Automatic annotation (TrEMBL):
Any Pfam family hit: SelO
Residues noted as binding Mg(2+) in the record, renumbered to the chain: N243, D252
Catalytic reaction equation(s): L-seryl-[protein] + ATP = 3-O-(5'-adenylyl)-L-seryl-[protein] + diphosphate; L-tyrosyl-[protein] + ATP = O-(5'-adenylyl)-L-tyrosyl-[protein] + diphosphate; L-threonyl-[protein] + ATP = 3-O-(5'-adenylyl)-L-threonyl-[protein] + diphosphate; L-seryl-[protein] + UTP = O-(5'-uridylyl)-L-seryl-[protein] + diphosphate
Cofactor(s) annotated in UniProt: Mg(2+); Mn(2+)
Organism this protein belongs to: Savagea serpentis
Gene: ydiU
EC main group: transferase
The organism's place on the tree of life at top rank: Bacteria
One Gene Ontology molecular-function label: magnesium ion binding
Protein name as it appears in the record: Protein nucleotidyltransferase YdiU
Alphabetical list of InterPro entries matching this protein: SelO
């Protein structure tokens, strides 16, 4: 096992040295055995590993630091940084180098009067949701462990303290580039861009303009990522620029959830009162965030008007790029071919009018459950179903492949809330473990999974989620 600290190659302005706080009475709540195997850290699921990951016995190879970055939070640019997260080090694995970070490990120079702690509930949510996206084949950071600290964290009420051990290909964000642009020099922006290329896109190193190529690669990753979110009804909840990674990984699972009834205006976050990050606005916000990213690269594109023209031209490609990835996902979900997209629009009209559940609708189509689809549905929905069946006639292999992209199970928000509440109040982990087990095989289509349809009493109830900060 080899540890590195390549982030320290960047100018000193990008980080602050800091040690994690030592947990009072740590204990493992969740341990990700499959991820630990990939990282060759299976032997850390013991007392020594617990001490290392809870701040009491740091590895000699680690050089802990807190990263500096900014972020447009609900449209307002703010100086941020790792207020409750500490990068322990970078681990070289057979699949590449990954960051190992503690989230909820105590105060840092960027805590802004916060305590740097986290409650058990938000850390469990991050673990559950990041694992769900991983097994849905969506790029994401992952959680190696959730550790209870034995301390009390005060928010609106007392909570059991905890931290999550997060694994990512890096923690470079659009907000990192904003920080370099606003607080540093063009040389600092260049150093950060060079580092990002080396870290994630070495194939563009010899491009005619490597920085334009960097932007294109990041834009592709983000367009593809958001298209996959949309395809499974995932709502991130807080798409601030500090929550958009340069690697294209989903990060920072705060008020996130999967949509129930199809509605473009669906919002789960308790603080998103204007619906800025609603389901239907996620593609648009992705483009807005990329505009903020390309602004930071202007000094590297060219002088004056030339740089602006290049940036605008590159950014203009986002809309068609996202549409390409989105249609690619949706065609697979319905076994459609190019040119048959009108069926999508007709289906969405029916789904919204009849308040149909996103996941259940596609699951029923996948198992060809005509009875469920037509139960109390409109003539329009019945007509659509007949038209779709006629269109896809003879495409048996493609229809079978629908099961590979339409999940039979997602961790519904009300189930995640129940699992967290039971764990927090009574240490009952039965539902939590069931959610994790089902999430690891979302396309299994077992009878046990199919039993987890959305209950009638949940179909008209709106749950809120909270960021936990």
């Amino acid at each position: 096992m080899k540890w590195t600290s390549s982030y320290r190659m960047l100018p000193r302005m990008f980080y602050q040295d800091v040690l994690p706080s030592v947990a009072k009475d740590p204990s493992f709540v969740l341990w990700n055995e499959s991820l630990a195997e990939q990282l060759q850290l299976t032997d850390w699921h013991d007392e020594t590993g617990l001490l290392k990951l809870s701040g009491a016995q740091l590895d000699d190879c680690w050089e802990p630091l807190a990263q500096a970055y900014m972020g447009h939070q609900f449209g307002h640019l703010t100086m941020l940084g790792d207020g409750r997260a500490i990068l322990l080090g970078e681990l070289e694995t057979e699949r590449g180098v990954v960051d190992l970070q503690l989230k909820g490990s105590g105060q840092t120079p960027f805590s802004r009067r916060g305590d740097g702690r986290a409650g058990l509930g938000p850390m469990l949510r991050e673990y559950v949701m990041s694992e769900a996206l991983f097994y849905l084949n969506i790029s994401t950071t992952r959680s190696l462990a959730v550790i209870e600290t034995g301390e009390t964290v005060w928010r609106e009420r007392p909570h059991r303290g905890a931290l999550v051990v997060r694994v990512a290909s890096s923690h470079l964000r659009v907000g990192t580039f904003q920080y370099a642009y606003h607080y540093g020099t063009s040389e600092d922006v260049k150093a950060l861009a060079d580092y990002a290329i080396q870290k994630h896109y070495p194939h563009v190193d010899n491009a005619e303009n490597r920085y334009i190529s960097l932007f294109r690669e990041v834009m592709k990753r983000q367009a593809a990522l958001i298209a996959k979110w949309q395809a499974v009804g995932f709502i991130h909840g807080v798409m601030n620029t500090d929550n958009m990674t340069i690697s294209g990984e989903t990060i920072d699972y705060g008020p996130c959830a999967f949509m129930n009834q199809y509605d473009l205006d669906t919002v789960f976050s308790s603080i998103d009162v204007q619906g800025r990050y609603a389901y239907g606005r996620q593609p648009q916000i992705g483009g807005w965030n990329l505009a903020r990213f390309v602004e930071t690269l202007l000094p590297l594109f060219g002088e004056g008007e030339e740089g602006l023209e290049i940036a605008q031209r590159e950014l203009n490609a986002y809309g068609s790029l996202f549409e390409h990835y989105w249609l690619e996902e949706m065609r697979k979900k319905l076994a459609l071919h190019e040119g048959e997209e009108a069926l999508l629009d007709e289906l969405f009209v029916c789904m919204r009018r009849e308040q149909r559940d996103w996941t259940e609708t596609f699951r029923d189509l996948t198992v060809e459950n005509e009875e469920c689809l037509q139960l109390e549905c409109s003539k329009e929905m019945k007509d659509w179903y007949v038209k779709w069946k006629q269109t896809t006639e003879g495409r048996e292999q493609e229809l079978q492949k629908m099961q590979e992209v339409n999940p039979a199970f997602i961790p519904r928000n009300h189930l995640v809330d129940q699992a967290i509440e039971r764990m927090e109040l009574t240490n009952d982990r039965t539902l939590l473990e069931r959610l994790l087990r089902f999430s690891r095989e979302p396309f299994a289509y077992t009878e046990e999974q199919l039993a987890y349809r959305l209950p009638e009493e949940e179909k008209t109830r709106m749950h809120q989620t909270f960021c936990g900060t």
